[in-house]
Amino acid sequence: MTWALITDLHANRQALEAVLAHARQQGVERFALLGDFVGYGADPAWVVEQVQALQAQGAVAVQGNHDAAVAAGARPGMHADARAVVEWTRQQLGAPSLQWLAELPLRVREDAGLFTHANAYDPGGWDYVMGRSEAMRSLQAARNAQARVNVCGHMHEPMLYHLSGVGKAGDFRPQAGVRVPLPCHRQWLIIPGSCGQPRDGNPAACYAVWHPGDGVTEDGWIRFERVPYDVEAAADALRQTTLPGPLAERLARRLIAGE
């Protein structure tokens, strides 16, 4: 079974279209969609519909912090731009979509993986996996759930962590398009990077192709991918909305940075 691991879509239709097309060309059999389907981008309704359709076909989908915020509505004291994004996004989604966002699970255990948005140790607390310390906590929580692999999003840059049988942690910043073996005697934490909002200066959308192996006789592997897409079209779509202007310019700056 080969999975496409996609996270932090952030209502970016152009990025998701490119990633889904690329993943299908790779022959993936399952999709894991790791949250933050809304927020920042111009097409929340379209993205939610695509995720729901994939979920109906057997994809895993978990809740992200932006999904939870949009489902709950703007809170007192929220930053003005964040409030504007939440309120605008809610206006684009009907009540069934908002209920679907609210009812998404925080974690799903399938195959060899524990799928979460932020981390495995407190998925609703939205802590970031900033380094080995948080990675070890997440890996230990996945081990307690009898999962060899934890897959999470939230961090918008691709990263890979591992934990040996004697508790020694390591990390690896992957290169796009290079298959990395995942020996089954180690625990693994996969962070695919953001589909809709990459933040490493490369505007290409991130996702990963994962084969878990059987955990006994066959090791798994992971390949992180970068998929170019029409960033300027995504920025133009934002400019056609009443969302805060800096959101479009942030995408446009990434386009310049990646050229």
Automatic annotation (TrEMBL):
<dbReference type="Pfam" id="PF12850">
    <property type="entry name" value="Metallophos_2"/>
</dbReference>
<comment type="similarity">
    <text>Belongs to the metallophosphoesterase superfamily. YfcE family.</text>
</comment>
<feature type="domain" description="Calcineurin-like phosphoesterase">
    <location>
        <begin position="1"/>
        <end position="210"/>
    </location>
</feature>
<dbReference type="InterPro" id="IPR029052">
    <property type="entry name" value="Metallo-depent_PP-like"/>
</dbReference>
<dbReference type="InterPro" id="IPR011152">
    <property type="entry name" value="Pesterase_MJ0912"/>
</dbReference>
<protein>
    <submittedName>
        <fullName>Metallophosphoesterase family protein</fullName>
    </submittedName>
</protein>
<dbReference type="InterPro" id="IPR024654">
    <property type="entry name" value="Calcineurin-like_PHP_lpxH"/>
</dbReference>
<dbReference type="InterPro" id="IPR050126">
    <property type="entry name" value="Ap4A_hydrolase"/>
</dbReference>
